[in-house]
Amino acid sequence: MTELSIVLISKNQAWNISRLIESVLKEAECVASHEIILVDSASTDETVEVASRYPVNILRLRPGQKVSPAIGRYVGYQRTQGEFVLFLDGDTQLVPGWLALAFRVMREIPNAGAVTGRVINLPTSAAKVHGEAAIPAAPTNPSREVRWGSYGGGGAAMYRRSVLERVGTFNPNLNADEEPELGFRIRQAGYMILELDYPIVRHYNDAPVALSSMLNRRKRNFHLGSGQSARGHLGSKLFWPWIIERPWGLAAALLLALGVGSLLVGLLTGHFVWLGLWSLGISLLIAYVSFRKRSVRGALVAAFNWLFLAEGFVKGFLMKPVPPEKFHMEVEEIVERHPNEQGSTPHFSETPEPRLQYSPD
Fold first, then answer.
1. Which stretch of DSSP H or E encloses residue 200?
2. Can you tell me the distance from the alpha carbon of 193 to that of 151, in angstroms, rounded to the nearest whole number?
3. How far apart are CA 205 and CA 281, in angstroms?
4. What is the CATH code for 4-206+324-353?
5. Are 157 and 102 in contact, with CB atoms under 8 Å apart?
6. Alpha carbon of 83 to those of 1, 197, 341: distances in Å?
7. DSSP code of 235?
8. What whole-number distance in Å separates Cα of residue 337 and Cα of residue 290?
9. pLDDT digit string (tens) for 290-318?
């Protein structure tokens, strides 16, 4: 079996794909056998052309069909054979040293289903800066148990294949929330997800918390993921644990329903007391968020986000779930290379090193 599979997903990221692939190729040299697969979501820029210059397998999802991060991860995983599988987004760069630390943790802690690390969020302008980035200092704190992959963007984590074969991999039918949903299933099966006290990726993204970004996410149906996951677990023992763990979509939907109900009661009875109380509550909530964020604009953006969350949860929950095994995707194979064509070098040093520990989140 190949020791490590690395799945990269991209869409119109020609501006960063070289940086990502080169960082992966350099770090993967410390693994005896590895394979690298890029799954491109029908990019219209030169992402595939640039990636073709490197020793990686390339799959491209055909245009005209649904694409999403979950689909890219699912399709990539189906083409892998590694004992461990690392997933990285196209707008990231693997931090030197993380992979060796992650391998050591996974070897030493068999009950670890996945391992991730901190995310260094940077503006896309930082990706234009040439030269070697500074290597972070060695971790001083033990790894800690977390709920799912990486925080702060840049979906990045390495999973144990035997665990994914037991609980299932990313659900390709989810428009979003695929990482929390997979992490949830992994932990419900009794495995841990560990976060190293060491960064895993540099994440280049300008996506500020702005109304334009939220409108773009709404256009791409990214708010449906929470409702889709809840509907998928409906009728199983995982439903209520999922709702408790990810309550925001349902809470937003209930809050919106309360407002609509108060309006209807007012229209039918001519008394708008309940609507007034609801409006007062919303106003106080916005005032509190404004104080916390020290920005009225930020609070109003957050209010719109809750509105989109409510809409997305309801729409996602009403969608009939489709079993992942029935998922179909048209994929074009651009470049195919076998693991031994991608180079191999000796294993990590056999020199004994201190054991890494984990601490509960």
1. strand 192-204
2. 13
3. 35
4. 3.90.550.10
5. no
6. 7, 23, 18
7. T
8. 53
9. 999 888 888 888 888 899 999 999 999 99
